[in-house]
Amino acid sequence: MTDRRYTLEEMQDRFAIIDLYDRQLAAAEAFDLERYDTTFAIDARVDLSDFGRTESSYREYRAWLASLEGTMVAAQRIIGGLRLDLDGDHAKARVPVACHVEMRVDGERVLTHTGIFYNDALERREVGWRIVERVEERAWSSPSGS
After folding, report:
1. DSSP state of 39
2. Whole-model pTM?
3. Which CATH number applies to 8-145?
């Protein structure tokens, strides 16, 4: 089997999508929700069923994230290899993420560790690539992060 050769457009799309994930994780760690908004389509759907939350619109998901600002003290998210399937203006991605989050729970600081897969559908929009659907899949968690 020979290595796949990418067209210039495919390489540009891959770099744009890698930048999207880097921007999203940096925005999440900084609690910069305006920057976070540049990674999701306004009409996106987010499914956090593996974490006890129902599927919601991006607006509902963003409001929930905003409500965590006083609870989530610090965070570091590390992504692994991007598994990306490009198809014109659409793409599917599976992104492994290690999340290390310090939470304030009952006045105590608790460090949680969780492994997640972002299973995303992306579309090229007028403003660039955006996540239009996300299903977060729990891969593992530490005893304190369960």
Report:
1. T
2. 0.92
3. 3.10.450.50
